Amino acid sequence: xxxxGAAAIIDPQGTLTGWSEGARLLTGHTAEEAVGRxxxxxxxxxxxAAALAALTGQVVLRHRNGHALRLTLTASLLTGxxxxxxxxxxxGAPAGALESPTAARAFRQASVVMSVFDTxxxxxxxxxxxxxxxxxxxxxxxxxxxxxxxPDGDGGKTLRDNxxxxxxxGAAVRYDIDAPAPSDxxxxxxxxxxxxxxxxxxxVSAVAVVAFDRTEQRGLRRRLALLNEAATRIGTTLDVxxxxxxxTALVVPRFADFxxxxxxxxxxxxxxxxxxxxEGVTLRRAAYTSSMKEAPPPGLKLGATSVHxxxxxxxxxxxxxxGMLVNAGDPxxxxxxxxxxxxxxxxxxxxxxxxxxxxxxxRARGTTLGVAIFSRLTHPEAYTADDMDLAEELAxxxxxxxxxxxxxxxxxxxxxxxxxxxxxxxxxxxxxxxVAHRYLPSRSAAGIGGDWFDVxxxxxxxxxxxxxxVVGHGIQSSATMGRLRTAVRxxxxxxxxxxxxxxxxxxxxxxxxxxxxxxEIAELGATCLYAVYDPVARRLTLASAGHPPPVLVRPGxxxxxxxxxxxxxxxxGGLPFESAEVLLPEDSILALYTNGLIExxxxxxxxxTAQLSAALSAPAGDLDALCxxxxxxxxxxxxxxxxxxxxxxxxxxxxxxxxxWEIPAxxxxxxxxxxxxxxxxxxxxxxxxxxxxxxxxSELVTNAIRYGEPPIRLRLIRDHALICEVSxxxxxxxxxxxxxxxxxxxRGLLLVAQLTRRWGSRQTGGGKTIWAEQTLPPD
Length: 779
Prior knowledge:
Elements: E1 6-10, E2 16-19, H1 21-27, H2 31-34, H3 49-54, E3 56-62, E4 68-79, E5 85-94, H4 100-109, E6 113-117, E7 123-126, H5 128-134, H6 138-141, H7 146-149, H8 156-169, E8 173-180, E9 187-198, E10 204-213, H9 215-233, H10 240-251, E11 258-264, E12 281-290, E13 305-308, H11 313-320, E14 324-327, H12 333-343, H13 348-351, E15 356-364, E16 367-376, H14 385-422, E17 433-440, E18 449-457, E19 463-473, H15 475-493, H16 498-514, H17 520-524, E20 526-534, E21 539-545, E22 551-553, E23 560-561, E24 566-567, E25 580-583, E26 589-593, H18 605-617, H19 623-634, E27 643-650, E28 658-663, H20 669-683, H21 690-707, E29 712-718, E30 721-728, H22 748-755, E31 758-764, E32 767-775
Parallel strand pairs: 21-24
Antiparallel strand pairs: 1-2, 1-5, 3-4, 4-5, 6-7, 6-10, 8-9, 9-10, 11-12, 11-16, 12-13, 14-15, 15-16, 17-27, 18-19, 19-20, 20-21, 21-25, 22-23, 22-26, 26-27, 28-29, 29-30, 30-32, 31-32
Helix pairs in contact: 9-10, 9-14, 10-14, 15-16, 18-19, 20-21, 21-22
């Protein structure tokens, strides 16, 4: 084979970026084998230092067949506008060969676009690759100006501006530009190097240009960038529709002019996966995005369903589990468009503009969820196999996110429904405490447990705080928890003291355990802590049935456990419960919780309790923030059980909101009591309800004098309602009865019940209290 000269381009990192046909003939290495490799790999011996310094000399390469090849190489430095090195243009020939003919062949046969212009921007030389891109033979280019071959709108103006710059400054220029090739009009990415050609006097006599086609690399970079962006932009929320919207918004306009996501109907609802019908596949439009500002509307609106026949690309993609690439003019395309135009004529104008589209199934964990459709309407290029690979990768990532959102939505809906039915609603307005709470259901495979809490308003502005735990998990524990919570509310309404309430609750659990349908209760057991706080007396009364004691934080002091006798768990039966009383200053914080907060397989109970007390002692003006702090400081990352935390900050009803009188057991004192109440209402600016209050006070005091025992006490409390209480030493509870037409009495409590919002009685240590509440007049 005849030896030939060669030309190559080496970037600043020493990597070959250009390789001519002459180089292949000389070394045996093809352009595909050489481009992208480090130039050092072709050396058989190190390059002499003198040759490196002079950029010319003899170098020994390794031929493709293995023998050493001695060449004479000359390198020309390529520099940028700022003088930075851009690489080297290297020409070579076998040592001792004639240079000019070989160099001409190397230039003409180079795989990159190469040309030379004179100082007036006329073509002096153009290799074969340049002629192919320009679509003009070399003989017709020589002597013509660059503007004759490259119009201004196709990057010609930038080309000419840089030719002038190199001619004027003598400095090399490198720039990147996206411009169509004049021969076919297809836009490509170009990386262009220009450098001056100097005559023996050092003056610029010509400008050499090399253009590298980087279209493939640009496409690869764009695809990688889109995939990287998909990892952060798709699936930011656990919402099915939002995830679909994120996919369509990501690909438009960079990958598609119009994109839509259509999901199988069951994905967006409570149903289960279903097979396609004979009529085809029913899909629901979940999201779409268009890049055209005045685009015609799509035929299918958001949320609407559409049946896709078996011959359609969407049905085929779902049935075969692979993407479909369809271009206008392909067999079946017109049939599918005609079918859609008949079913959804509003979108005809949009469909008529489709040039190319991809239909990709959304599949995750072996389940088909729907399809993603990417359409090009104004984009100059049709979709390719590489585009299909990208679309399938995007669809795969989106499908996993959609499936995650679907599963989460379904599980969350179930959990929320269960929690809303079993946990208390808002505690309402009351002056005794402000509360905050957290309930964290177990994430174990056993399911939701039986932890619960409640805040129950009581008479006299008091409030009951309850926390309980049915040991175990599953539906049985949750159902038992609901029954116990209902029972506690019923017993609290009777105003039983904490120890008596737990006794009745214990009896209930014992009866439930005896029921054949509730046999598991005896094995699981249940615990409960019941506390009552009186904001007038500032007294907390509590009792425990096998439950962890609460933590009390008095103002300015560290948290400590409340000393309360821990009775047996509920369901044991036959054992007593004991109440404890604690006086609390205003702004004390009481923390009730379940054992999931402090207990665990690898946790020390004393250490966890100490952590809880320390976390509660931290300064916090907001109870919700304190709840979060406690959970963050005390709760392990993966708790094994349900967790309930109930925080209450105590408040006090001072003497300015409470008035008390001792009433003599004399019927004549009824008038005195009425007058005292009237005067107090005037002081509270509540004269609007004075008449009703006089009647209530008169009836309750009269009953206490007539049927009760001294001492008798009248108390008015101004809270969110006006509360009237009359106490005496008798334990006999009053009750309503129907008075006959000629009876002289028996209508007092009936009158009280009709005039007030609610009324009732409660037993006390020294007798009973009859109370009634009135709605305050509007301000």
